Amino acid sequence: MEIFRQHITKTADLTGQEWTAFSTILKSKSIAKKQLFLQAGQICYSSAFVVKGLFKLYAIDTQGNEKIIQFNIENTFLSDCESYINKNPSDYSIKALENSEIIAFKNTDLENLCIQFPVFEKIGRQVTHDILAYHKEHLKILLTMTPQERYEFLLTNRPNLLQRVSVTHLSQFLGLTRETVSRLPSKIAA
Questions:
Q1: Which of 77, 115, 149, 150 is most buried by a 10 A CB count?
Q2: pTM
Q3: Cα gap 160→153, rounded to integer Å
Q4: What is the pLDDT of residues 164-182, one digit of tens each?
Q5: What residues does 78 pair with on adjacent strands?
Q6: Which residues of 10-37 are buried (b: 16+ CB within 10 A; e: fewer)?
Q7: How do residues 95-138 score in pLDDT, each as one tens digit?
Q8: Dihedral of CA 48/20/25/103: which sign?
């Protein structure tokens, strides 16, 4: 819980009373590898902070192929903002790729805290901003970079991720074939 508190403190300093109120809605949970946090077709009623582990947010295209939109590692938030805000069924699933530990909360509970303590609006906005900024970064990678540049971007900016995900998952994230992703490390080293 302390890691989560430190992360939140980067956005807003909470008083003792605010933290006590916040902690009443937080639930520490273990999520097993391959377990779903969110299933496509369900409304996203909860969000979570990743304390330990790795998740993928993904969709299935019309041909049945998995397309990974986002990876979530430690110190990031899991949620489908669009589903939560508009109360629409999610187009995405969120699944653990490793045995993971999260701190989850119901989005309605956070909304209720915002009424009592306006500082939580700032925290909610920052969480939403972080999630959307990561989506935008992924779109930029896909739309403006060559396959080699995409891989180099991850090598420079997310080296830990490259060590933790399979070639299949990496190819689904980068929009490349497994073969192309497999050749990229030797191509870069040359």
A1: 150
A2: 0.91
A3: 12
A4: 999 999 999 999 999 999 9
A5: 48
A6: ebeebeeebbebbeebbeeeebeeeeeb
A7: 999 999 999 999 999 999 999 999 999 998 988 898 889 889 99
A8: positive
Question: How many residues appear in the chain?
Answer: 190
CA distance 83 to 31: 21
SS3 94: strand
Amino acid identity of residue 128, one-letter, is T
- The tens digit of pLDDT for each residue in 128-157 reads 898 889 889 999 999 999 999 999 999 999
CA angle 71, 44, 74 (to 5 degrees): 30
**CA–CA separation, 147 and 177 (whole Å):** 10
Domains and CATH numbers, the chain: 2-143 (2.60.120.10), 145-190 (no CATH)
Q: Using H for helix, E for strand and C for coil, what is the string for 109-128?
A: HHHHHHHHCCHHHHHHHHHH
The token duo for 58 is 């993904």
Q: Quick count: other Cβ atoms within 10 Å of Cβ 142?
A: 13
Segment 30-69, tens digit of pLDDT = 999 999 999 999 999 999 999 999 999 999 999 999 999 9
In order of 20, 43, 122, the CA distances from 116 in angstroms are 13, 25, 13
